[in-house]
Amino acid sequence: MTKQKNAILVIGACGQLGSELTLELRKIYGDANVVAADIQYPKQADLRESGPFEIVDVLTPQHLTELASRYKFKQIYHLAAILSATGEKNPKFAWRLNMDGLFNVLDFALEQKVEKVYWPSSIAVFGPNSPRQNTPQDTIMDPNTVYGISKQAGERWCEYYFNKYGLDVRSLRYPGLIGYKALPGGGTTDYAVDIYHQALALGTYKCFLSENTRLPMMYMPDALKATIDLMHAPAEQVKVRSSYNLAAMSFTPQEIAASIQRHYPDFTITYDPDSRQQIADSWPQSINDSAARQDWGWNPQYDLHTMTDDMLRHLKRINN
Ligand code: SER
Known about the structure:
Blueprint: E1 4-11, H1 16-29, E2 34-38, H2 45-49, E3 53-55, H3 61-68, E4 71-78, H4 84-89, H5 91-111, E5 116-118, E6 121-122, H6 146-165, E7 169-170, E8 172-174, E9 176-178, H7 191-201, E10 204-207, E11 215-219, H8 220-232, E12 244-245, E13 249-251, H9 253-261, E14 268-271, H10 276-281, H11 290-296, H12 304-319
Parallel strand pairs: 1-2, 1-4, 2-3, 4-5, 5-7, 6-8, 8-12, 9-11, 10-14
Antiparallel strand pairs: 11-13
């Protein structure tokens, strides 16, 4: 059997980030060259229909080796992970999936001589002892969620594979991601997506974080641009081989509600904080991303209001 050369593998392609990143990569590299992979078939028609899909459980390395008999991958995006809130419900499994999954992908990439690997980290690598404002690239971390601990350990291992084996792994510490195409699952920042859906469906939203909980956030088009820009940067410009701080905006539930009220003055919000409040309180309020700006020219496009305008416009179109 002839192998398909120069393929790109996206693991976790059905997730909030994966479902958008896969389509973006297909635009750049051609539909047939970007292989979407996940533990389940995509519900999203555009993802299912626009290119190849493979079932991959990252905890089963044979799934990856089986793919290698049909594709020669030049890049892998490994996005499959359990997020912060879900992770706290089953910490041992979150650790196993997030860490063993990463090892399986890094080892597969080495074995297959994959040119570049992308792996996302998060603001969750920081903890209650980190500076909360303008959190620097290098500072006290001490994450206290299993998700954050797995992301910090993952960063160390990515850097290790780069230094020790020369594997070109690249990573970003995403803030909360907001997009209209797919829902997030099991994160602490998910409220900032739900709120737009509920504003249109019900005109009211009950928030699981308190009104003044400020967190770093980013609109999906900026997250896609950052990921692709980082992967396109010449290797020598990628000086941070753990993971880059990345920022766009920070806001509170009260502020996003006010931003929605510019369009829907009758929209109301109530607050009923749950266990996710404690996680949010351990994270930074704003992030210093000067290393990303200097090294490979990062520059976000969206702020809170321009994001709200775009989110509501698209959601209204989808709902009609
Ligand atoms: N958005 C993620 C979460 O809330 C953090 O990376 O878990």
